[in-house]
Every structure is written in C-alpha cells, then in structure tokens.
Amino acid sequence: MHLGFFSVEANVASRWGRLLSEYPVRQLQAAELAEGLSGGLILLHLDSVAPDQRRELIQRFESMQQLFVIMADRPQNDEGIRLLAQGARGYASTFMTGSLLQQLLETVWRGDIWATPSVMQQLVKRLLNGHPSALLSVQSEKVGLAANLSEREQQVLDILMSGASNKQIARELQITERTVKAHISAILRKTGAGDRVSLILMAQERHIIH
To answer: What GO biological process term is on the record, naming one (predicted)?
Structure first.
C-alpha cells in the first residue's frame, strides 16, 4: 500500500521520512492533499493544517474514502474520539516512537483502529454504555469460549469488557500491568481482534451484546 505524509514542520517531516524509510512513502504537498492518495494511507500532521480548514479536509477525505491517520502534537481524548467518528482510522502523537508507528501502520492496514490508550478506553466505555453488567458477563464468556481462552485470560477479558484500564485490571487481579498486557495480547490474537474497540465491535456484530 502507498503511504504519504503531510507536515509543514521540517523537523516532523524529516523524522517521519527517516522512520518510514522502509516503506514506499513520499511527503505530500499542501496542494496534493485535496486530491488524496488513491489506494494509499495518509499520515496527516494536524498541527500543520489551519484549524478552519481541518473539518473541510477531513470531510473531503471521507467522501473520497481516503484512508487517513491523524497525528497531533498534543493528543486529547475528546479530539481523538471526534476525529475517529469523522472517519480517521487512527489518532496518535506526532512524536510516537518508531516501533509504535510501525504498529500503528500494521493495525490500520489490517482494517482496525489505532488510538492512544486513553482514547481507546473512552471509546470502549462509550460502546459499552447502557449494557447491563449481566449481559457484559454473558458476552465476555461467549467470546472466551469461542476463542478457547485460558481461565486467567477469561478473567482479564471479563474486567476489560467493563471498560477498565490495564492498571485497573492489574489491581483487581493482583498482577502486574506487564502481565495484563501479555494476557490482552493473547486475547486479541486468539479472537482475531486488533484492539479493544474491535473486540467490542466483534461482540456486537455477533449479536453477543444486545
């Protein structure tokens, strides 16, 4: 897949160019943004776009079915949720590490959503809002059985599906956050979900959450 990025800040453009050098990538000019990148993915440096032009550009991307990710210098939960709702496939920090940037690209190309952990947690809570705890327990058990999860993975999943953070899960089960991350990685791998949001959506699509 083709990859393009846009930033008017020389240090950001230089850094992205270096981190993405192993991909077929090119830096886009302002005039090219309106045309999009056919069949490709655009990393858009939000702070390089004038505030009064952002909405129009994002709407244009959506109308063209352009795959795009928003990179912000100072990510904020409300902004991230709004942009994801407007069609962005990812929302992350402009200065994320190279390894995380690679994970972001792999996640988006796989068809899943990437966002900062705090934005993901807020998205999960919104998706689960209004679903009684009894139903959440039932749908969690069904997902676990279908994916052949271990007993501990099922326990982690039960708490995760309530919208809990890794820290909250670790406290509840009296294990380390590192162990929680390992269990969540195993759960996502076994279920085929790319992230927590995809896991919830998967459950909804299978009519596990009603």
So the answer is: regulation of DNA-templated transcription
Question: Residue 177 corresponds to which tokens in the numbers above?
Answer: 């956050």
Gap between the Cα atoms of 133 and 161, Å rounded: 10
Length of the chain (residues): 210
Query: End-to-end distance of the chain based on CA atoms, in angstroms?
Result: 36
Strands (E), the chain: 2-6, 25-27, 40-45, 67-72, 90-93, 114-115
Cβ atoms of 137 and 173 within 8 Å: the answer is no
Domains and CATH numbers, the chain: 2-114 (3.40.50.2300), 126-205 (1.10.10.10)
pTM for the model stands at 0.67
What residue ranges in 103-195 does DSSP mark as E strands? 114-115
- How many Å is the Cα radius of gyration of the chain? 18
Q: Looking up tokens 């991307």, which residue turns up?
A: 61
Over residues 104-135, the pLDDT tens digits come to: 998 888 888 888 878 877 777 766 665 544 44
* Of residues 194, 8, 2, 11, the one with CA closest to residue 95: 11
Q: Across the chain, how many H-helices and E-strands are there?
A: 11, 6
CA distances 103 to 97, 117, 201, Å, are: 10, 14, 20
